[in-house]
Amino acid sequence: MLKRWRQSSQDWPIDYWLLGLISVLMVIGLMMVASSSVAISEKRFADTSHYFIRQFISLGLGLAAAYVLFQIPLSFWQKHRGKLFLFALFLLIMVLVFGREINGSKRWLPLVVMNFQPSEFMKLVIVIFMAGYLDRHASAVKESFEAVIRLALPFGVMAILLLMEPDYGSTFVIAVVITGMLLIAGAPWRYFVLTVLPMASLLAVLVIISPYRMARVSSFLDPWQDPFGSGYQLTQALIALGRGEWSGVGIGGSVQKLLYLPDAHTDFLFSIYAEEFGFIGVVFLVGLYLLILYRLFRIGRKAFDNEAFFGGMVAYGIGIWIILQAMINMGVNMGAFPTKGLTLPFMSYGGSSLLLLIAAMAIVFRVDYETRRTINRNPQTEPAADKEAV
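Above: the chain sequence. Below: its structure as tokens.
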């Protein structure tokens, strides 16, 4: 049976295992948005399904965009990566001028049907830009520090614009994605130290001199010191996690979503999920994300084996982005990290995040499609990755 599955999966146009995993995650996400937003939707709009409907519309728009993006060859993204990066910078400038301010941050551009978050677009653009840069300068990156430090100017401008919003979480995610892609491309660890230490020092200084960031750090270290003030959100999240115990209170049975836990349908949706599905449900969810990471890295490795370096780096970069953001979001909910304002990929309420993640997956599926098409044309070059058990 395993041999038959293995053989049939090689004939698929794309990785249907990955498609299935993403679909399960999005269905769970829709279910949890519907459950976690009941009270806040009724309070704000007198309609318990308001946020669920908007998330469902965002999902539909994302799937429509994914169909279009899947038709675009990878060569298009490789050729126009510089223009995409400049356009993303332009959007970051626009959000500082015309953006909508929510909770002290200017991160959203008001559009007709939704608020668009340019930092989410920048995450995807960074992966494409870095993949193209590393494809052209792969040898130089391994041998010359100049090829790495050359990235400081464009990414420095980007980081300044993100921190002006401010969006500390997205800045951190993008920095780690860039570092991860450099290491996968073969950049020596000493370059990593020379580039990351100054950046880490700068971010630490920004935390120290910014009262609201310092408050987040201090409250995350000991939220029970001020459970009704700066530590309120985290203490309510921890209560939700504790109530879930082994098997949870059941879908829809959460108490913390009834206006006790702020942002229960966005940044802290994981806590409500843990309350309703318990430890077993959390293990299942973590397993889903790890399987998605495995399939993404597998696509990247297959692309590398077929000398499609650009496509492989795109798959690896998107894999790093998704798993890192999931880890940070879960860590924030459990009190392991200070609040970052990052969504749980494919699950938390947020049109921009869902749209861009689905778009990213469409590009990954295009990488897989072009790799499989190359293998089918040249079966003698089939990589060893295809011979492994699925």
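The radius of gyration is 21 Å.
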